[in-house]
Design goal:
The protein is mainly α. The chain has 2 domains: 3-63, 434 Repressor (Amino-terminal Domain), CATH 1.10.260.40; 74-156. It has 7 helices and no strands. Helix 6 (65-117) packs antiparallel against helix 7. The two termini are 25 Å apart.
Length: 157
């Protein structure tokens, strides 16, 4: 709702004519008419008097509700998007984390078997597992840093 519509509605709710409102504010009826037509805005002292008379804040009178609602809706959508993205990345991070630990444990098993049985092929497989675990650990670290970046973005909204 725009300023002029709010003034008209509030004046009518109080049961005042333009002339009566003008008299209470110490302005001309034409000034009130220009406000209601959207041709001009009241000066600060008159705006304060309007707020006191109607029992509303200056923010309410001056700001268009549609703009406020639109900004709030956009913020809510952005936060929802970040939250969904964060949940996806958390899922991947958990997956990478457990995969990395599984690879490390398998690598230790292969290397122990190689040392015990003197099979160097098993040792090579174990080393391959270690390399795989390092790669998965790097992926996990990247996922965690993405989560932190999304958390920062959500907090800044």
């Amino acid at each position: 709702m725009r300023f002029e519509e709010k003034i008209i509605n509030l004046r009518k709710q109080k049961g005042l004519s333009q002339e009566e409102l003008a008299e209470q504010l110490g302005v001309s009826r034409q000034a009130v008419s220009r406000w209601e037509l959207g041709q001009t805005l009241p000066d600060i002292p008159n705006l304060v008097q309007l707020c006191e008379l109607f029992g509303v804040s200056a923010d309410y009178l001056v700001k268009d509700e549609e703009q406020t609602v639109t900004k709030n809706e956009q913020s809510a959508k952005t936060i929802a998007k970040f939250t969904r993205e964060r949940e996806k990345i958390r899922y991947l991070a958990r997956k990478y984390y457990y995969t990395a630990w599984a690879a490390v444990l398998m690598a230790i098993g292969f290397m122990l078997a190689a040392v015990i049985d003197s099979r160097w092929v098993s040792f090579g497989i174990g080393m391959g597992q270690v390399v795989g675990a390092v790669v998965v650990w790097i992926l996990y670290s990247r996922a965690v840093s993405k989560i932190e970046a999304l958390n920062d973005a959500i907090d800044s909204e």
